[in-house]
Structures are given as C-alpha cells and as structure tokens.
Amino acid sequence: MNEMIRNTQTSVTKGSLDPQDWSEFRTLAHRMLDEAIDGIANVRARPVWQPIPNEVRAAVRTGLPRAATDLAEVYREFSEHVAPYATGNVHPGFMGWVHGGGTAVGMVAEMLAAGLNANLGGRDHMPIEVERQIVEWMRGLFGFPQGASGIFVTGTSMANLMAVLVARTSALGALARQHGIGNDGALLTAYASKAAHGCISRAMDIAGFGTDALRRINVDCDHRIDVSALRAQIAADREVGFKPFLVTASAGTVDIGAIDDLKAVADLCREEGIWFHVDGAFGALAILSPELAPLLEGIERADSIALDFHKWGQVPYDAGFLLVRDGERHRQAFAQPAAYLSREARGLAAGAVWPCDLGPDLSRGFRALKTWFTLKTFGADRLGEVIARSCALARYLETRVLAEPRLELLAPVNLNIVCFRYRADDAINREIVADVQESGIAAPSSTTLDGRFAIRAAIVNHRTAETDIEALLAAVTRFGMQRTGGVIEVEAPPLATQ
Ligand SMILES: *Cc1c(COP(=O)(O)O)cnc(C)c1O
After folding, report:
1. Does residue 389 have a pLDDT over 90?
2. Which of 161, 64, 84, 1 minimizes the C-alpha distance to 440?
C-alpha cells in the first residue's frame, strides 16, 4: 500500500498558504523558537508585569489586514507590542490569582501539537489515544473504577458546568435533554459553600436552573463548608418539596485554599443519594504530593472531579479536565446521534466513544499533548514536589508576615495562598497592590475576607523562590510606608529603621 503514497519532495502547492521559501521560513522560525526560549530562561530580567502604554494599545488597533505582511514584520510587532505586555505568570514574582507558570517543555509540546493540527473531537488516531492515556492516569490517581471517563476542556469553569449537566441528566433522565428541565428540573437544588468559586453559580445559571437554585452554605473559621449546615439545608429543602441533586465541594478554595471535609461530604451525599462533585481546580493535583494527599481524603468517592493542569500542573494554558466516575452517565449527558458523525468498525471513523460524546465541543485541540509531555518529562513525583514546595513557600511568607509588625495575616494558610495586609485601611492596601504590580517587582492580587481588603499571594509558579517572597514583602512594606508616611494603624512594636 505504501508505494501508493506519493513520494514527492518538499513542495510548494501553488495557491496554498505554505511558505514560498521554506529555508527562509525555517531560519525565521528557529529565531522565534530561540527567542521564546530566551524569554523563559531570562524571565527574571524582566518586570513581572508592566502597564500597557497607550501607543502600544493603539499600535495593534488596525483595520482588517487585507493585504499580506511579511512574517518577519508580524513577528516584530509581536515582539514589541505583545510579548512584553503579557500577564506575567511565567515570572516567579507572579503571585496574583491562581495562575500556573508553564514550562519550556510545555511550550515545545504545544508547538508540536500545532504542527499536527489534530482535531480531537473524534475518529481513530493516536492523539486521542494520548488523551485516553491521561484519562487512565487520572482514573488511577483518584482511585476511580474501571469505566470512569474523562475529557480535556478549556478550564475548570467549563468542567464544573459539565459536571452540573451530567448531574442534571442523571437526576432527570435523558429525556430532559429533549424536553428541557421542566417542572421537575425547577425543583432541583444544588449546594456549595460560600467560599466556592463563582463559576459554580454561573454553571447553575447556564444549565437553566438559575443561581437561586444553588444554596450557598456557610463556612467554618477555616473556610470549609459547614457540613451540619449543609445537612440542615438539604433537609429543609426536602421538607418543602425541593429535590437536592448536587453538592459541589471545594478542594482548594480560590480565596484561601481551604479544602472542604471531602469524607464528610461524601458520606452525606451517599446517604442522601446526591451527586458529589469536587471542584479541585488547583487543589486536586495536590494528590501528587504524598505530604499533601491526605488532605484530599474522600476525593476518591466523588462522582466527578474538575481540575486544571494549567495551574499547579504547570501545563501551559489551557488544560482543564473533567473526570466522571460513571462513564456511561457522562456519555448520556452529551452524546448525540448525527449521520455525519457516524461511527464505523474500521477506518478513520472507528474508535468510539469519541470525545465529542463527552462534552459540548465537536472540534477540539490537542491539549492532552502538552500535559502528556509535562507528566512524562518531569514525572508525577516531581510535580508533586513542586506543589509541596509552593505550600512551603506560603508557610514561609506566613512566618515572615507574622514577624513583621507592619503586616497582618488575615487568614490561616492552608495550602499555597497567603492573605495579608499592611496595617492601614482598605483604600491604602488597594493602592499598595496596584503600586506593587506597577513596580514590576511582584504581582499579588487581592480579595475581600470578612469584609476586609486583603493582599493575596497565591504561590503556584514552580520558579518562585524565597527571594521572590522577600521581594514581595519588601515592596509591600516600602509602598505601605510611602502611602502612610510610616504611620501604622494599630499599636505595634517600634519600627526598625529601613
Ligand atoms: C481557577 C478556579 C476555577 C476556574 O477554573 P478556570 O480554569 O479558570 O476556568 C474554579 N474553581 C477554583 C477553585 C479555581 O481555583
């Protein structure tokens, strides 16, 4: 059969978009790769983030380019106008929100995936096998049974939404996909703590239940869901005729990294016959660290888990993931017959179940490849060590905050997130966060805890080291001093002269 494959040299098809001169393209492409590698290797030499000058914003605002521009020129624009003004999460000083740092390996894998230009919606090809292998690894890691299923998605927002949809179909039966959620659906209620991520209530909205159908349960002093309050709310809802169908527990809340008591929630869900979903966006991968894994006990009993490889997993954006215990229920929520998607026993149209049966997307990219490269090249143990180290750095920051009279710790440090503030009012702290970000020294974010503005440092990036923690602290105290003239809000020991 192979002699039937045309044996032509590298060629240029007239009218195609391929380079007219491959060697010229190759030279430029190698330079791009070199400079992209330099960008990561020398990241410390740059500010974490910098404000975008108006000229730069203006420079990219042009009409639709009807005519061709040289690749070299487009690349120059990228280098001057785009690359220097990225979010900064590659930089070790980036501690804002929960952003992963990415790796050089992930970057190269992403390039290889782009070269294959594979569509992972379905059909029979190795890229899908790579995705299935990662599903299998995750199934083993989280102790899910044979028959579990999983799929890459953009991020945990999407994975949480899909979990709501799977739980919905599971509660109402597959006919609800045809008739809509109807009167029965209007009685379904879901539960999550007040510290749960906002995408969960948005998922309830998008799934057609409305955000009121999500009961927000109080948290204890450690920001974990109050399980007895959860139990009471479920009972109260049943009492008046509602049908509790879903509890979403958090494995790592976005504000302070709290992990709900997953065992207790699992027990309750089992007793009540309720779908038990875990939002493990960043926290679930702590299971890779033997030291942290016990915190996640009970996650193996979940009906579904949402997680992101692009956060603690250090895989470049985007790489969200949904794992479902009962693969058949997962399929029932999304699979759809369509003649143009018919499955065959052999040939390219073989290989069902296809990923498009497991989510809303038909065309899908090869997110699995950068994840496969990351897991294989570093090894799961090493990633677990990186995760544990970011928790150790968070504890270091906590210790330093507690030792500094001008700073105040605002929440217990559970995992990798430290919330603190300069001893001054909310307005000054808000300015300090912007000052530090604009200085390019570090990039913390902020949140509100018990009504007080907090400077939030989430240590996620594998490059972050103690020196970066020190730089953050020095910047916060310096800008705090500048903004307050050194006057601090509450009684504290005399300040050391700076
Ligand atoms: C980041 C995060 C999300 C949202 O995930 P995306 O990948 O940004 O869509 C949801 N829940 C928690 C706890 C998160 O940290």
Report:
1. yes
2. 84
